[in-house]
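Troubleshooting entry. The earlier prediction with thymidine-5'-diphosphate gave an output that would not parse, so I re-checked the input for stray whitespace and re-submitted. Clean input:
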Amino acid sequence: MKNILITGGAGFIGSHLVRRFVNKYPQYNIYNLDILSYAGNLENIKDIEDKENYSFIKGDITELDLIRSVFQENQIDTVVHLAAESHVDRSISDPLIFIKTNVLGTATLLQVAKESWKDDMNDKLFYHVSTDEVFGSLGHEGYFYEDTNYDPRSPYSSSKASSDHLVRAWYHTYKLPIIVSNCSNNYGPNQFPEKLIPLFINNIINNKPLPVYGKGINVRDWLYVEDHARAIDDIIHKGKVGETYNIGGHNEWTNIDLIHLLIKLTDQKLGREVGSSKSLITFVTDRAGHDLRYAIDATKLKNDIGWMPSLQFEEGLSKTIDWYLDNTEWLENVVSGRYREFYEKQYANR
Ligand code: NAD
Ligand code: TYD
């Protein structure tokens, strides 16, 4: 029996985690707190909304009184914190909301968890979901380890780094039971089409330009979203309080190679001549401060918890493309409205 508060459960990763927990653990009560920003979409979790062990609360993690009442009314004993502003390009054009949500929001949750649990920290857990981007940018060699020094470069990654530091400060200062995980780039169904993979799938479908930043030589380590959700589940149940775990896909790709694979698979599925969508590739001005390479060493997770990624990249990409092709209504809904305004502003001067 647990009362688990998952923040950001209407977003991309959060929705996969909420579904996993609601279905797999009927004995846990799952409270999903989400502000429903442009990235939060209740359609993502429609299939579980009527389950008895699930409740949705629309709200802002920076609102102290609201968070206090959520803890009190529901006897929250576990927090899995994903709510965040998560897109690097948005953080470059509008950094302050990243500081508010990612830094103040995390501090607010920590503070309420501490107040609520101060008399008995047993069987409590504050699990913080973070990113490998806090470690900065690698050259062509080397990996990020759990003890790699922090060196964030974007407003997004520095706000996540700040939140990680706050989580560890509450552990050392107040003995709050915490775990932090830092994961590499995720991909899969329900990802908002502003991130590379869903944006490019959508643009290939609609014969729109594929804006490759710089020369397309930047490297990311891609992990299927359900593998990330499984890692979080495993760490919550088998991880050690106070520890940090790196989660990664052992799956490094330059953007341009990934884009060629994406084009091949999508052209095949659309019945187009394979490779014909390469003509959509458009090299545009590089992202400011664009990190060259991220690569996670996830040996600790494998040795201590027994977790390994389950999907080969081509299989995961294929499932992802199928999902977007089967869910064109979802795609059209999110591409219209507020997302469109951002998209036009974002690419206007490139
Ligand atoms: P996302 O942008 O898809 O979803 C974020 C969710 O948080 C949305 O549902 C949004 O409505 C909600 N939210 C935003 N501000 C809020 C607020 N003030 N109060 C309550 N809810 C709020 O993000 P994602 O890609 O699912 O990422 C989830 C978490 O995982 C983030 O903390 C991110 O830093 C981390 N992460 C993401 C990746 C990745 O590749 N996407 C990789 C590693 C770590
Ligand atoms: P993104 O999905 O935004 O994730 P992150 O920046 O957090 O790693 O971008 C992945 C890579 O793709 C990154 O190197 C930037 C690049 N990129 C493009 O070349 N064009 C685009 O339109 C986008 C959104 C990203």
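This one parsed fine. Residues 7-8, 10-14, 33-37, 39-40, 60-62, 82-84, 86, 101, 105, 129-131, 160, 183, 185-186, 192 surround nicotinamide-adenine-dinucleotide (ligand 1) (CB under 6 Å).
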